[in-house]
């Protein structure tokens, strides 16, 4: 990941921004997703590389979403959060492999459904299918102190312990020659992998960087990876369809579009790469149900008088009427593209509702 400096002030420490999450369903005696597991790695601190502001913060946000009842609804003991700390060589490969080993032991003892693996930090492209996930000690001397994305994905899939694996990498994929990223120290004597679906999202295409930058998050200025912010927005409702469900297709499309948009706003380029293995369920498979139908209450303020029509994504008319300059409409809208037209002035515009905002203002 490449840092993008947008203000001169030093942002708050990433660790300070990480608050512990609780799953309210545990205290209420309600069901939680006991068959789900996660390893969440955020590396902001490096011995030789430029420090990053976003990885620990972004990793924390994903960890908390996975635990919360209205998010992943997971047991906190099943979420292994592995952040870096200033002035330390940790996490090292052993810490990450130990977390995976603990999960594999639990999944062997009791049937498992899902595993999330997330890494945010510096990275590089060894080749088009192998990404190096840089450990804190990486340097020109410790040239191979990086984990192989392909080797770790292969390990998790070939265990045949999980029905689904979600593998998210928010790191650069700039090419480095003659690199040999590390395979996991874990393994087994049985080949497998035919029974595990894997959804893989790389923050950038091979030979390209992934960016972080200062962003406005609900009125708070924080540094986030463009990819990680899009990822969290998707999980928090941005990727839901009109039934309140997040499918593989809606999830990937939202993350890709938003990541590209955040980069373009800063005159940068970043394109998300996705791969799917063993998808027997189809691209419309629902992997998260929010129970919330997406919608936004839109306030439209009119800058010109005229005869107005507001049409929805399926071209149905939502509202029509005569307005005067300064009038406003309060309209609840579902997710999608809406067209507003002033027939008097012969002007029109498209309004995009992505489901992430409860309220929104629009001048027309």
From TrEMBL:
What are the protein's GO molecular function terms?
Answer: cysteine-type endopeptidase activity
The record, for InterPro entries, names: Caspase-like_dom_sf, Pept_C14_caspase
- Which positions fall inside the Peptidase C14 caspase domain? 37-274
Listed under GO biological process in this entry are: proteolysis
- One Pfam family assigned to this protein is Peptidase_C14
Identification of the protein by name: Caspase family protein
Species this chain originates from: Chitinophaga pinensis
């Amino acid at each position: 990941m490449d840092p993008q400096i947008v203000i001169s002030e030093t942002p708050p420490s990433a660790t300070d921004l990480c608050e512990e999450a609780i799953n309210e369903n545990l205290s209420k005696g309600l069901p939680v997703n006991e068959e789900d597991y996660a390893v969440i790695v955020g590396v902001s601190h490096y011995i030789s590389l430029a420090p990053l502001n976003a990885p620990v913060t972004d990793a924390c946000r994903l960890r908390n979403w996975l635990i919360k009842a209205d998010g992943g609804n997971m047991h906190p003991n099943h979420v292994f959060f592995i952040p870096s700390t200033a002035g330390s060589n940790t996490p090292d490969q052993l810490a990450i492999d130990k977390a995976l080993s603990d999960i594999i032991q639990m999944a062997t003892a009791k049937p498992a459904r899902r595993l999330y693996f997330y890494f945010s930090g510096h990275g590089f492209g060894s080749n088009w299918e192998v990404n190096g996930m840089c450990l804190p000690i990486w340097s020109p001397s410790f040239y191979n102190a990086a984990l192989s994305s392909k080797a770790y994905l292969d390990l998790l899939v070939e265990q045949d312990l999980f029905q689904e694996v979600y593998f998210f990498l928010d790191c650069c994929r700039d090419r480095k020659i003659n690199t040999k990223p590390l395979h996991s120290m874990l393994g087994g004597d049985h080949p497998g992998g035919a029974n595990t679906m894997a959804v893989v999202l790389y923050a950038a295409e091979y030979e390209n960087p992934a960016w972080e930058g200062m962003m406005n998050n609900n009125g708070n200025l924080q540094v986030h990876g463009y990819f990680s912010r899009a990822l969290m927005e998707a999980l928090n409702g941005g990727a839901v369809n009109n039934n309140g469900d997040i499918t593989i297709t809606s999830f990937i499309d939202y993350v890709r579009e938003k990541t590209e948009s955040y980069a373009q706003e800063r005159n940068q380029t970043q394109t998300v790469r996705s791969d799917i293995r063993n998808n027997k369920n189809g691209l419309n498979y629902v992997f998260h149900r929010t129970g919330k139908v997406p919608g936004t209450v839109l306030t439209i303020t009119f800058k010109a008088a005229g005869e107005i029509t507001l049409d929805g994504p399926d071209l149905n008319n939502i509202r029509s009427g005569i307005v005067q300059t300064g009038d406003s409409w309060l309209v609840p809208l579902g997710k999608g593209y809406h067209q507003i037209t002033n027939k008097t002035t012969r002007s029109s515009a498209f309004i995009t509702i992505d489901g992430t905002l409860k309220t929104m203002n629009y001048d027309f």
